[in-house]
């Protein structure tokens, strides 16, 4: 029955992806309102935001021009700074240089660059002239970068000089690439980013189709398979920023007179969370953004101590680091009013431990949810009535429903099923992959996230687990995140990941991979008993306990369960 249901959905989805249907979808998502009476769908309780018909640079430059000589971007290592009155100028210079070198609207620029202030000028400058950016993780191997850039059909590449040396042999095999730009170092035959930013040239802003022209092409695995290019249009990203900036969504305030939010920016800009929620939204608010290129424990703590941020956008591993750090000084957080957590579920035990360590009645731990495919935000904790462990409620102009995993029927409160989202932030589709798009977005514009979730009577949502990561024990579902949060509450456990391993008797059995705190000597049997005393029998760790030095995770903190499974 489930297979027939999915097949019928898939056949219908193929019709939706044809370009002639995009106008219908545009009208559909703009009609989403919190005033609907459809009881099977949860609508945002926030006011409907205005969705402007402007490009990203038009949306941002109008705001950044207002903040004048206030510091916008600062390197947390070198201290070099750029003010808001330089944002437009340096961005336009870079974009104009791309046009002068032969790029045109619709071409794709591959970027491999650690976090730095100049990231903003590269991205906004490309956007200004209609060039699409596909960002890659600087930690990727040459093979991984090459695979993404080949799939994205890049025409130009920009990367750090140290990375350029590694990539040169691979890039030489890409006949479509004839523009090579390097940052922070000299490479023979490559153009210097610093030279492009200092060139006094100017081009007109490109006229873009807000709903169809790609703004950025990040790569995501979606619910299954290898990474795919996610087409996010100008409209997707601008709309999502507008949704996030609706009054009542966040405590963050726009710069005014002597007040300015202070950010310590550590989330990578190649990831949509760091790019949109920290960098782009931060610029719109006029924040002073101190940027770190990577996570280094000592550097991170020193920067927190010197900046004393008002806002932190983090992922659960960073929150866990702060909650467990022996070098934490509460003075670092004397101005902190908001910690945003996203990219992966935040266990209540970690959340509560951080709140206890900081011990500030004014601190708001705001959890959120989203995907690369939703530009990225779909949910945030409400300013009033939030619940630890909940990823919050739908943001403005966003509709959500929970579907039964077997029948596809919409479910009421407190029942678990697949989380589906509709809104103006939902991607256009996957780059040159209609089948993957059709498997992700149905004919009515609902994005099927592949996440198992539920909502309570207060319409707060809770992520239970990934659909593909559920462990099946004798047909019963075990959510790895539930056991992980339980084990993290053990006083000697630093970190943990749970996967299902093959079992002849039960089909699968839960196995825990555990990182102990320094000096701990707890045994496998002790941890197994700890779980057995607190969980139903089918959730017991019959697959065993394995001790590791670190848990493999992505740059945004998601557990790389496939790496653990590949070692079985």
UniProtKB/TrEMBL annotation:
InterPro entries: AMP-bd_C, AMP-bd_C_sf, AMP-binding_CS, AMP-dep_synth/lig_dom, ANL_N_sf. Keywords: ATP-binding, Luminescence, Membrane, Nucleotide-binding, Peroxisome, Photoprotein, Transmembrane, Transmembrane helix. It comes from the Eukaryota. The keyword Membrane applies. The chain crosses the membrane at residues 266-287. Its EC number is 1.13.12.7. The keyword Repeat does not apply. One of its GO terms (cellular component) is peroxisome. GO terms for biological process: bioluminescence. It catalyses: firefly D-luciferin + ATP + O2 = firefly oxyluciferin + hnu + AMP + CO2 + diphosphate. It is found in: Peroxisome. One of its GO terms (molecular function) is ATP binding. Residues 62-431 form the AMP-dependent synthetase/ligase domain. Residues 482-558 form the AMP-binding enzyme C-terminal domain. Belongs to the ATP-dependent AMP-binding enzyme family. PANTHER family: BCDNA.GH02901, LONG-CHAIN-FATTY-ACID--COA LIGASE. This is Luciferin 4-monooxygenase.
